From TrEMBL:
It is found in: Cell membrane. It is an enzyme of class 2 (transferase). This is UDP-N-acetylglucosamine--N-acetylmuramyl-(pentapeptide) pyrophosphoryl-undecaprenol N-acetylglucosamine transferase. It is a peripheral membrane protein. Residues 187-342 form the Glycosyl transferase family 28 C-terminal domain. Keywords: Cell cycle, Cell division, Cell membrane, Cell shape, Cell wall biogenesis/degradation, Glycosyltransferase, Membrane, Peptidoglycan synthesis, Transferase. UDP-N-acetyl-alpha-D-glucosamine binds at T11, A12, G13, R164, S194, Q289. PANTHER family: UDP-N-ACETYLGLUCOSAMINE--N-ACETYLMURAMYL-(PENTAPEPTIDE) PYROPHOSPHORYL-UNDECAPRENOL N-ACETYLGLUCOSAMINE TRANSFERASE (PTHR21015:SF27), UDP-N-ACETYLGLUCOSAMINE--N-ACETYLMURAMYL-(PENTAPEPTIDE) PYROPHOSPHORYL-UNDECAPRENOL N-ACETYLGLUCOSAMINE TRANSFERASE 1 (PTHR21015).
Amino acid sequence: MKRIVLTGGGTAGHVTPNIALLPRLRELGYDVHYIGTYDGIERDLIETLGIPYHGISSGKLRRYFSLRNFTDPIRILKGFKEARSLMKVLNPAIVFSKGGFVTVPVVYAAKSRKIPVIIHESDMTPGLANKLAIRTAAKICCNFPETVGLLPEKKAILTGSPIRQELLSGNKINAQNFLSFTGDKPVILVAGGSLGAVSVNEAVRSALPELLKTYQVVHLCGKGKLDKALEGTTGYAQFEYIKEELKDIFALADLVVSRAGANAICELLALRKPNLLIPLPAKSSRGDQLLNAASFEHQGFSMVLNEDDMTTSVLVERINCLYEKRQDFIQNMQNSGQQNSIDAIIDLIEDLHL
């Protein structure tokens, strides 16, 4: 049996593209194993799917001063030793890496065993973990045409991001029943990412009295970020994270308010959902979400609101404007010619495996 190791972790965005590949990999007879951190979000997401999960030590690579910069290299070295032992035991034919700091020791361990690695970079510019891993890769998949020129020649392949196919088969009625929503008001889905977005959460909750006059709101607010004071509010439903019901909620949503993580916006494109992107600002990131959002805005797929410009009144105004112009955004997304990313990546895996 062919064996493949998938790796990626830290956020759901580093895991869900791997999950999207699973049905095809299983169809083709691959024995799939997953390497992630000991107790990251990826562990819960993968183990529920019945995939053998192997946890390793992981440290964060920072561009700023932190006392943990002195201890995390020890964790990374430990992770490399653990990953190398796993590569020896599992002996996979190939490794597919989605990114996140846990993947660095995995791809270097694969290189030490002469196991080919495919890396997927979702953002416009490679993150630090992928920058460190790029030289070990046989191929590098990416989402944006602009990214190809930033990667080593002959390694870069424009594939787009794998989208979980079940997201395309949601049922609106199931979502209405699950949320106890009515059919007489449009629905806004607010998604701040698997870890949540405090500023987005606060702005949406401040705007609720005005928004609920016109809309119903589903709020995915992140782990530990529920607001108990809002429990039982008519037309408002909040969750830390949604898994099984997400496809139905997407089907029901008329608009989406989201951060601009690459995987999230690629899902919105595939689902043709009019969206307002609130990218993570440069002061809190390396600026990748700003670039992602600018690209989607330029292509007519998204409306963008920078966090520094966000107030309650501006947020409500932008949402109302998006709803009025929603058909224009849907049309632009329908004309985008979304690539079949899963087939493109599976073809690369099969080519390297052979």
